[in-house]
Amino acid sequence: MACLKPPRAVLTTIAAVAVGTGLTIGSAQATGPGFLSHQALYELSLLKSRGAKAVNAARGRILYNFTGSACEGYTSEFRQVSELNSGEGKSTLSDLRSTSWEDGEGKSYRFKIDTRMNDSDAPSVDGFAERIGDRIRVKLKQPAAKTFNLEGSVVFPTEQIHRIIDAARSGKSILELMVYDGSDDGEKVYNTLSVIGQPISGDRSIASPDPSTANDKMKTLTRWPVTVSYYDRDARAKDGEQTPVYAMSFELFENGVSRALVLDYNDFVISGALGKFDVKDSKPCK
């Protein structure tokens, strides 16, 4: 049974983190409210099951803390506990914890990810990535000490969200990015395809309100429906087409907060309803 786990970039998007997100952070803050420091709790449930690996039930929670600014960088703390049931008493319990920091210009990224499946701990992933010229140098401490370079125009998760918001403000509907988030063994790079819908104004009535749409800081903000598909950059496409490893749909506010999550794992789809939402104090840039 697969672990109910989106890639690290998706997690960042959830918080303004960003869920895996060219503009500069400076230009994003010049044209919008900037990223909001906050804590969000998402309640997970099974939306649909399809394919050969049937899932009869799913439940869980995502707790996300996001703080920081363009001048001091962005820190995120993420925990996802989920249980999948495939029938006949077969269930899989997973517990994913991650922490990360990304500097305000998207030039460096620290990350640590711990995963537990049932009663077994997977090797931790711990590393640091830094942009040097036209490449990114990654230094891993775990699961094994290793240094390597990532070629191409690769971005980190918070920068990915900045670019999605910038594209949305510019009226673009498609954005392709390569994203590095420390997923899997710390060596994975994802090709991502973001599809951005028409803007939703803050004064539009909403069928299913939640704590984000009721918050005074959020009521006046524009948001966009976004779907981000994640593809394994190293996998070969068959017949010219490649199936995404994950896909995630959500409504993205211009301050980086996400609501109405839908996590698509191909064989099953999970809904993530925003149950609690708290705004945190943050230090403005001088």
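(ticket continues) Second input and output from the same batch:
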Amino acid sequence: MSQLAALIIDDEPDIRELIALTLERMDLHCDQAGSVSEALSLLKQRPYHFCITDMKLPDGNGLEIIELCNAQYKDMPIAMITAFGSMELAVNALKAGAFDLVPKPIDIERLRELARAALKLTKVPTNIDAIPSSEGLLGNSAAMQDLKEKIRKVARTQAPVFIHGESGTGKELVAKLIHHQSVRAEQPFIAVNCGAIPKDLMESEFFGHLKGSFTGASSDKPGFFKAAHGGTLFLDEVAELPLDMQAKLLRVIQEKAVRAVGSEHEENIDVRIVSASHKNLQQLVDQELFRQDLYFRLNVIQVSVPRLAERPEDIPLLSGHFIRKYAQEWGMPEVRLDSKAANALEQYAFPGNVRELENILQRAFTMAEGDNISLEDLSLPAAEVINSQNQEDIIETNNLEAYLENIERTAITQALEATRWNKTAAAEKLGISFRALRYRCKKLAID
């Protein structure tokens, strides 16, 4: 196997030599260029496994090289050397496709870590459909093909990613796939629902705390950032963070260091941030509900997840997947959608997106008699009175669901006891199918 090669582009010979010495000790062959023209000439002569370029060059700038390499040498990761305070240029470099940034003055250990990460890309799988996940990114529509291609591209960088999409579209799945296709795939993926953390516990949950630092802190806790060290931290519903927590999050992202509650020392962290929200962050910035500087940090690359209504041709594939899933989980024979039910699903607006489709089919699977799911089994709401705006008005009903589950458990238990646990007779007594009773017993853990 031929030796791995790196191209170093900088108009300062001392910096080129420093980088070359560092990379050569990692067994990389290094070529050096002091200008855009020299770099282009070398790129035509041989393939490189890694490239690092300065922003300002005598006959152009590093952005030109990044854009060219992303167009002509897609498999070669390229890093950008950035000066202190040039955040806008750094963001532009990441948006143009830079793998990562190397701040000046150059930290040798940071350079080594970056080079090791870049070289791992040759071992990362390129087929997104071959990567295991809880559900898989299902769909062959043009919208889904575009999404899969975007995931492939952003996974090859270290840039922060913001995922936008309505509730139920699969934003966390997209975040996982970005992680699994990246050089961080073997490191932790930590998902955090920012809207589910009590405000007074946020700092401790994110940054950790030391034992005794506050009432109830009975032991040390690492926090989300340290738990995700080396990997990816997924901040779901990031728009729900209060402004004071946004400021603290911004500082950690800028400094790449966290200080646990009760500690006097900061610890360096290496985490890629992927965030998501169903809300429009730019509108929240305009309303002064979200910090503009944090928005720029998080929204370097945006990935939009399409609504299910935008890809109705994927509904049959998704429907078949969910029916097979519950048949396997519950140990029951598969059923099929009859033609009217299948047509109704393709015509329905799905304000709750893929999550709603799964819930509808889960319920219909339990209610179906025989081998087919009928239109009646689907129990679809009137589509014309539902629109995407309603999705933001949905109220959490966890307490109501628990209350209803208790009522259901009592009714089923009474019916089973009255029939001496004959499930066929109990189902008839309750006025439901045997399949529905089996499902409910499994769901409610009734033996």
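Agent notes: The longest helix spans residues 398-418. Residues 5-123 form a domain with the Rossmann fold fold (CATH 3.40.50.2300). Closing as not reproducible unless the customer responds.
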